[in-house]
Structures are given as C-alpha cells and as structure tokens.
Design goal:
The chain is an alpha/beta fold and about 200 residues long. It is built from 9 helices and 8 strands. The chain has helices spanning about 10, 15-25, 30-45, 50-65, 70-80, 90-100, 115-125, 150-160, 180-185, and strands at about 5, 105-115, 125-130, 135, 140-145, 170-175, 190, 195. Strands 3-2-1-6-7-8 form a 6-stranded mixed β-sheet, sandwiched between helices. A hairpin with a 2-residue loop joins strand 7 and strand 8 (about 195). The longest helix is centred in the N-terminal third of the chain and has 19 residues, at about 30-45.
Length: about 200
Amino acid sequence: MDIAFFDFDGTISSRDSFVDFIIYACGYKKFITGILWSSPFLIMYKLKIIPNWIAKEKVITLFFGGWSDDRFNTTSIRYSQERLPQIIRERAKRAIEFHKRNGDEIVVVSASPENWLQSWCSSYGLNLISTKLEIKNCRITGKLSTPNCYGIQKVIRINERFNLNEYDTIYAYGDSRGDKEMLNLADVKFYKWKQV
C-alpha cells in the first residue's frame, strides 16, 4: 500500500483557507480593519523576528478570541460546505481520485485549524493532521493547543500517526517552504504541482 500526503492551503485549495475563513466568518470590512491592526505582528513574522505561530495566535485572538466553541464550529462547518468547494483545485480533486482508485492512504497535513478542514476531509474520506485551537470554558482563547502544523512539525505529526516503513511508496504534495520537510519524506514529490 502507498500513502499520499497533501498540504491544503495553496495545494488543494487555490487560496489560503485561513484568510478566506476570516473573511467568511467576520466580513471583509472587519478583516481589513483587523489586518491593519495586526500588521506589526505580520511584518515581524515576514522579517523573521517572530515565528509564524505567534503571528497566528495574535490573528486568531483578534478575530475569534472569546467566541464560543459551538459558534466557531458551526461557522466552520458552514464554511466547509458553502465556501470550501469553490476554492478546491480541479487538479487536486483528480490527484485525490487517483490515489483513491489505487487504494492508497490519503492524508491532508495542514497548518490551518482542523475546525473547517475536518468536515471537508470527512466528506472525501481523507485523514487529517492539522493545527488545533485551545478551548477553555467552551471558548476560543486564541492560543494553539498543539504546535503549529508547519515545517518540521508536519513531519513530527506524520511520524506520530503513521509508521512510514509500512508503505511501499510515499507521495507528497506541497506549495511552500512550510512543506519542505514533508516533501523530503517522499519517494514521489510534487511542488506546486510539478514533480521534483
């Protein structure tokens, strides 16, 4: 049996689902205002002064801190049903179908929170490894409850869940530097949909 790992944002989807979800959940006007407010953190991340998980927590806290987990999950499921299908790449669908026909294990590995990805993955019968958000007293705190599933954390989380020695061929699909370590695990790798 073979196994295929897919990054989600920019690989399966045509745009960043995290940004798209914020716009969907909060509205474009609030998104622009919030991005302007959080721009110092985003600039520090781009300049590599702070790691991406700190910038992510700042953004999550700004937009969703204090939301009830029920409200957040209901919005996430609605987003996965109404919006996600519009931003899924056709070539990603074809690749997933190829691996399904081959009987391969298929795993989405994403830095985005699991909340809106789980529903979509379940509808396609895919496994999911992704970032989890911290919930306290049934509310979103803005913190992450797991390390951000990015870079080397993708490999760590994959190895926690799968014994890769059990598979004949490992495939990996990614599109950014956050996927580099995951791509290095693979026998067959695609970067921005080109085999490398």
